[in-house]
UniProtKB/TrEMBL annotation:
Name of one Pfam family that matches: LGT
Transmembrane spans: 20-39, 51-73
GO molecular function annotation: phosphatidylglycerol-prolipoprotein diacylglyceryl transferase activity
Superkingdom per UniProt: Bacteria
Matching InterPro entries: Lgt
Keyword Transcription regulation: no
Positions in coiled-coil regions: none
GO biological process: lipoprotein biosynthetic process
UniProt keyword Protein biosynthesis, yes or no: no
Protein name in the entry: Prolipoprotein diacylglyceryl transferase
Protein keywords: Cell membrane, Lipoprotein, Membrane, Transferase, Transmembrane, Transmembrane helix
């Protein structure tokens, strides 16, 4: 019995010149799920939802910037070859992608 897995298109959607990748969709779904669960737990513990949302508004961008900085620092040889493209979010991977 042979099992063949097809190749998944890495682009979830293309809207004009903007390409949405599947890994971005999965990361966004994870962030939304974590935010939903966190606000539910906050209610159970007697905390306000706004506290969790305010914290997420700081933590998510800082986490993404930290992942990009980690990628840039540890892939310096490759980045020197492609120069400024590595600093744009749409052009290069983040470190948690496993590349």
């Amino acid at each position: 019995m042979e099992f063949v897995l097809g190749v998944l298109n890495p682009h979830a959607a293309e809207i004009g010149s903007v390409v949405i990748h599947w890994y971005g969709v999965i990361i966004a779904a994870g962030i939304l799920a974590a935010l939903q669960l966190s606000t539910k737990e906050a209610k159970k513990k007697g905390l306000e939802e706004d506290t969790i949302i305010d914290m997420a508004l700081w933590a998510i961008p800082i986490g993404l910037l930290g992942a990009r900085l980690y990628y840039v620092l540890f892939e310096l040889v490759i980045i020197c070859k492609i120069q400024d493209k590595s600093l744009r979010f749409g052009m290069a991977a983040l470190r948690f992608m496993g590349d």
